[in-house]
Amino acid sequence: MKKYNFDQVIDRTHTSSFKWDNVTYPASGMLPMPVADMDFPVADEILATLNRITDHAVLGYAIVPESLKVAMQAKIRQDYGWDTSLDWQVWIPGIVPGIAAACAAFTTPEDGILTAVPVYHPFHLVAGWVDRPLITFPMVQEGNRWTYDFEAFEIALKKGPKVFLFCNPHNPGGTVFNAHEIERIRTLCAQYDCLIVSDEIHADLQISSQTKHLCIASDINFFATSKAYNTAGLGGAVAIIPDKNIRDAFTKKTFGFFPMLTRHSIEVMETSLTMSSDWMESLLPYLRTNHDLLLASVNSLPGLTMLPLEATYLAWIGYDAKLHGDFQKRLFDAGLHVLRGEQFKGGDFIRLNFACPRVQLEKAISIIQQVVHAHA
Ligand SMILES: Cc1ncc(COP(=O)(O)O)c(C=O)c1O
């Protein structure tokens, strides 16, 4: 097995990087840990695919070949035991536009869009994009993890939303919903006639080796390889939609709005699904070690709390504002960029992306310690 070295620091500045080339950063530099991509090079096989396309040097319109469809179908069967038909697949350039299309297709301006908060911001922003009312309910801490307040969920469903946006694994809570929770979600949404739109983009990024990601197998299920294989800049995703009427209504909303997938994204997705497991087998232990280091460091500091993640590389860190003031700004001023809880409708929290070489994470921890101690 090839062992990848994720300790290698790669300069990403001046590469049109959303994360590293942020125009608000001072010239003296910033350690960026906001948007969810990893500071690691892709797997050798993915590089070989990209090089093969470059050598061929023709970049015309592309189609999704049967081989990619079959590879995705096989993954869903292998991971979840769910037998899907190739006809159920709708290939799209990204999950966020897919969520917007689903919301536009299955709600009217009177219907609400329902989601739990805190949540990955497009889940709540989409209501404004498509001019629909937003209905939310809170996540709660139960033991050592974030889960739904199911009573609040039912109260929210009584308001009549027609689409429920389900994020599993949850960003930013890191929750992998268990079989019991998934059954409750399915039952409640069926009872109140609310379509489930499920986003499983973080499914392969399992931080807890005790947890197994389960797919809700609902009305619309989004899958992508881009998060786990670090190809987010290329895009590409699939919606699995078993019902033909729902599939046709969804697809109609994409016409004229969604560009065709690029050859790069198509071939890279197929490579991700069919290549050796070496890269993922190196990546997960590395992310788990980063996670454990961050968890222990954060929880040893006054006024900061982090729950262990079951999945994702996005830490959700609560802070005592009486002790730490505007913590996100204070960290920014000290050279560390993390996202504000408010962006996720989450209050006094920050979200920190720890998918980076260990030396960068150590630097981030040291900035957090300095900022905390400056006030303590
Ligand atoms: C839960 C979730 N869904 C979707 C996306 C983005 O998906 P895409 O790039 O396919 O639009 C992200 C990116 O961070 C995410 O965290």
TrEMBL record:
Molecular function in Gene Ontology: transaminase activity
Record Gene3D superfamilies: Aspartate Aminotransferase, domain 1, Type I PLP-dependent aspartate aminotransferase-like (Major domain)
A Pfam family: Aminotran_1_2
Keyword tags: Aminotransferase, Lyase, Pyridoxal phosphate, Transferase
UniProt KW DNA-binding keyword: no
Domain Aminotransferase class I/classII large: 92-368
Record keyword Nucleus present: no
Entries under InterPro entries matching the protein: Aminotransferase_I/II_large, Class-II_PLP-Dep_Aminotrans, PyrdxlP-dep_Trfase, PyrdxlP-dep_Trfase_major, PyrdxlP-dep_Trfase_small
Enzyme Commission number: 4.4.1.13
Cofactors (names): pyridoxal 5'-phosphate
Similarity field: Belongs to the class-II pyridoxal-phosphate-dependent aminotransferase family. MalY/PatB cystathionine beta-lyase subfamily.
Name under which the protein is recorded: cysteine-S-conjugate beta-lyase
Organism: Aquirufa avitistagni
Top-level taxonomy: Bacteria, Pseudomonadati, Bacteroidota, Cytophagia, Cytophagales
